Amino acid sequence: MKICMVGSGYVGLVSGACFAETGNDVVCADINEEKIASLKDGKVPIYEPGLEAMIAKNVEANRLGFTSDVANAIADAQVVFVAVGTPPRADGGADLRAVDKVAEMVAEHAASEVVLVLKSTVPVGTNARVRRITAESAHRIHVVSNPEFLKEGDAISDFMTPDRIVVGADDDDAFARDVMKRLYHPVTLHQDRIIWMGPASAELTKYVANTMLAMRISFMNEVASLCEKVGADAHDVRRGVGTDKRIGAKFLYAGPGYGGSCFPKDIKALVYVAQEQGLELELASATDRVNARQKGVLARKLKRNHFVDDLRGKRICIWGLAFKPRTDDVREGPALQLIEVLLAEGAEVRAHDPEAMENVRAIYQDRVALFDDAYEAARDADALVLVTEWRQYQNPDFSRLKQLMNRPLLLDGRNIWSGYGLREQGFTYDGIGVIGS
Ligand SMILES: NC(=O)c1ccc[n+]([C@@H]2O[C@H](COP(=O)([O-])OP(=O)(O)OC[C@H]3O[C@@H](n4cnc5c(N)ncnc54)[C@H](O)[C@@H]3O)[C@@H](O)[C@H]2O)c1
User: Fold this and answer.
1) What are 370-413's pLDDT values in tens digits?
2) Which of 141, 365, 374, 375 allows an S-S link to 134, with CB 3.0 to 4.6 Å?
3) Buried b (16+ CB within 10 A) or exposed e, 177-209
4) Pair 289, 92: CB distance under 8 Å
5) Listed residue (342, 265, 332) closest to 298, CA to CA
């Protein structure tokens, strides 16, 4: 099938590459000309494991191309996916200007009957709004909602072996349903994973899933704070709770608060949509509030527990800048929040990350010293703060760190070093709700 993927970011590039991999003819379009030029040059502007190789293979096979001529790419397609950003507005609602723009372009440039698939995360009612925008087109535009559930860091396997594919389409739209079935056939061969529903339910499903996951994180972060007060250990509580099959073990890890481009904005947008309907989603609002507080936990711990409220001139090393491992995405990450406070308080910030340093350099230039070698970043540091649990940080050479650091203080934002006997080795160890050793 001829697919135009509008928006070539984390979602658009992965989805585009995977659809090409399964035999479709895909063009990824984007208004960011620099991004398209770099893709045409063979350079993938984001880090996602396996993506570069998959893109190269499908470009070579002539199944995948890139263009900044969005109108032309739309005119040539049977299926147009919308994978543009839907960032938060100041009032918490989702900014849908890019989605509207693409809908207008489809209305104007579609050259035949097309299926327009909303893959971006969009609030309930957007499908209906896009139908209104495209109603004037000379051709029939079938509007389908197909929210994306891939996780950065595992995006390709999530796309190729999804838990489920949610499709919101009209019951009587056999044309659109057939196109969606055929598109996802290769990844649903073993098991039918498509869950059909109405567009509004599909739109809501995405927000509810993200809010549910975020809620678990925020609750465990509150539990971790309680653990610290009462001498309990958040690791043990997590294991004790997560082995209950009704609860399950995932998303129960205490840490420095959730970040990324999705959870923070999606929870706010769900609360906003409910408020528009006169409903207060109190659990969702509290999840967001708890997270906002939690994102300050590392800076608070440094100040209150270890530096008597004075970070001026202290050399703080951060390991991990991406909002989670296996991505270069730093958007809304706890590392950025920590950096902000440290710089404002007059501390010297040094950092290392295997993939995300360029994105941090673009924000802070030389105000944050970035090192290709994680140990060099820790040289003469007054504290080492672990923010992202990349595998390579799991079992570092602690005796080397001890020698390198000015003060042997480890603030473990992901609790990956608790139980390593670090106090015996002469370190001060602090985690998030764990006793540690
Ligand atoms: N990143 C994730 O893990 C993830 C997962 C599931 C869903 N989503 C959702 O998918 C959507 C895209 O997210 P992302 O992380 O890929 O965003 P992104 O910022 O990485 O990419 C969006 C791209 O859209 C392009 N764009 C903006 N306006 C455009 C227009 N009018 N025409 C063509 N291109 C345009 C931008 O230049 C950018 O390259 C969002 O709604 C997001 O919430 C993201």
Assistant:
1) 999 999 999 999 999 999 999 999 999 999 999 999 999 999 99
2) 141
3) bebbeebbeebbeeeeebeebebeebbbbbbeb
4) no
5) 342
Tell me the two tokens of residue 77: 């397609």
Distance 119 CA to ligand 1 centre (A): 9
Ligand 1 pocket member 262 (CB < 6 A) = yes
Distances (CA, A) of 355 to 322, 370, 413: 8, 12, 19
Q: Is the dihedral of CA 96, 209, 47, 156 positive or negative?
A: negative
Tokens matching residue 358: 């360029």
Catalytic residues: 262
Candidates 425, 237, 327, 295; CA nearest to 410 is 425
Look at ligand 1, atom 27, and give the residue with the nearest C-alpha: 84
* Token pair recorded at residue 155: 């995006």
Which one, of 395, 358, 401, 341, lies nearest residue 377 by Cα? 401
35 lines ligand 1 (CB under 6 A): yes
**Domains defined along the chain, listed by start:** 2-197 (3.40.50.720), 206-293 (1.10.1040.10), 296-430 (3.40.50.720)
pLDDT tens-digit profile of 216-267?
999 999 999 999 999 999 999 999 999 999 999 999 999 999 999 999 999 9
% of residues, the chain, pLDDT over 90: 97
Task: Compute the Cα dihedral for 32, 101, 80, 110 and give only its sign.
Answer: negative
Task: Please state, in angstroms and rounded to a whole number, the distance separating the CA atoms of residues 6 and 30.
Answer: 6
